[in-house]
């Protein structure tokens, strides 16, 4: 079987000699057509962060990443009766395995869902990150007129903006923050009203100029009611972590900070505004099962366009080049195409 093999930070290779998996009871075997490189995969590629939860080992000892993918059912495990061979499906695995020709997926509504005929495999391979975004928006409980700020305009942050717009929430300003101009351009395309690059501005001052400055006994804020932290902590990016900036930005009353981005290490932050402003900090990890279905329905109806977020496509045998591309400033979402059907966008 053809597969990727993650070796160590900065090193991932293509193999052609892996043992094909077989589905256990309650699983299906999926022929992978397209698999995305997730932000967590990139954390691992940079410094081994989350490695133990992102790769699936083959009998040969190859460590296969990939947990957001689309393909067709190739075989059924014992006891599986509600699925048929040949059905198009989105698969989500907790321990990787998707960057390969075949991967076993448990049959449950959190990990396996049917793809509408109108949605291509590369689009469908972005279902899981869009479902993550839908959960974040649900948890934020955004009220009409509130200003929103999104740290990180990668596939997750852009999905948050798409979800807000697709749901028709009547927000105030939607501000995207990222260090890569290409991603900020994409944020404007999918519905942000304003974009900020920390390399060229003071994020607090710029956000306050856009959304309005508050200053009272609780301190100062940029009148941002909800901050989505889709960046987390990336060690090589200078400046305070997004969570510290979020605490400064967040409104002096009823603020919510939704944390999703991964953390590459421990970090030091000034937590004073947490006490002064009393915001709610909410962690978000994953999605509700129905949000996988909702994400695909948004794609099917055209309420969101995920194709525009796929910036690069590589065949599986160029997996090393694909990971390098995902780390470059011009990348939004890099997609590995494993079969010919997935190599052509619909």
TrEMBL record:
Molecular functions (GO terms): oxidoreductase activity, acting on the CH-OH group of donors, NAD or NADP as acceptor; zinc ion binding
Cofactor(s) this protein requires: Zn(2+)
Domain of life: Bacteria
InterPro entries: ADH-like_C, ADH-like_N, ADH_Zn_CS, ER, GroES-like_sf, NAD(P)-bd_dom_sf, Zn_alcohol_dh
Any Pfam family hit: ADH_zinc_N
Gene3D superfamilies: Medium-chain alcohol dehydrogenases, catalytic domain, NAD(P)-binding Rossmann-like Domain
Domain Enoyl reductase (ER): 10-336
Entry-linked SMART domains: PKS_ER
Coiled-coil segments on the chain, per record: none
Keywords from the named record: Metal-binding, Oxidoreductase, Zinc
Family assignment from sequence similarity: Belongs to the zinc-containing alcohol dehydrogenase family.
The protein, known as: Enoyl reductase (ER) domain-containing protein
């Amino acid at each position: 079987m053809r597969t990727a093999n993650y070796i160590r930070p900065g090193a991932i290779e293509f193999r052609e000699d892996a043992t094909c998996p077989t589905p256990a009871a309650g699983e299906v075997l999926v022929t992978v057509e397209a698999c995305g490189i997730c932000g967590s995969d990139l954390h691992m590629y940079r410094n081994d962060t989350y490695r133990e939860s992102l790769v699936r080992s083959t009998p040969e000892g190859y460590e296969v990443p990939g947990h957001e993918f689309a393909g067709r059912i190739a075989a059924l495990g014992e006891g599986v009766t509600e699925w048929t061979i040949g059905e198009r499906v989105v698969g989500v695995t907790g321990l990787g395995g998707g960057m390969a020709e075949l991967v076993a997926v448990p049959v449950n509504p959190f990990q396996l869902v049917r793809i509408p005929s109108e949605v291509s495999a590369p689009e469908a391979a972005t279902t899981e990150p869009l479902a993550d975004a839908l959960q974040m928006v649900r948890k934020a409980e955004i009220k009409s007129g509130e200003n929103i700020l999104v740290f990180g305009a990668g596939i997750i942050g852009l999905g948050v903006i798409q979800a807000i717009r697709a749901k028709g929430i009547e927000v105030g300003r939607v501000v995207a923050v990222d260090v890569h101009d290409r991603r900020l351009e994409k944020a404007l395309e999918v519905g942000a009203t304003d974009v900020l690059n920390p390399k060229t501005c003071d994020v607090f001052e710029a956000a306050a100029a856009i959304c309005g400055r508050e200053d009272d006994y609780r301190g100062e804020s940029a009148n941002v009611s909800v901050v989505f932290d889709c960046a987390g902590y990336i060690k090589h990016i200078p400046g305070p972590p997004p969570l510290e900036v979020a605490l400064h930005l967040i409104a002096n009353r009823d603020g919510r900070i939704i944390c999703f981005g991964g953390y590459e290490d421990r970090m030091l932050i000034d937590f004073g505004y947490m006490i002064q402003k009393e915001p709610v900090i909410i962690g978000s990890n994953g999605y509700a099962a129905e949000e996988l279905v909702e994400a695909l329905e948004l794609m099917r109806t055209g309420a969101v366009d995920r194709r525009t977020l796929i910036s690069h496509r590589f065949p599986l045998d160029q997996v090393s080049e694909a990971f390098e591309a995902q780390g470059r400033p011009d990348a939004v979402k890099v997609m590995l195409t494993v079969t010919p059907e997935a190599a052509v966008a619909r």
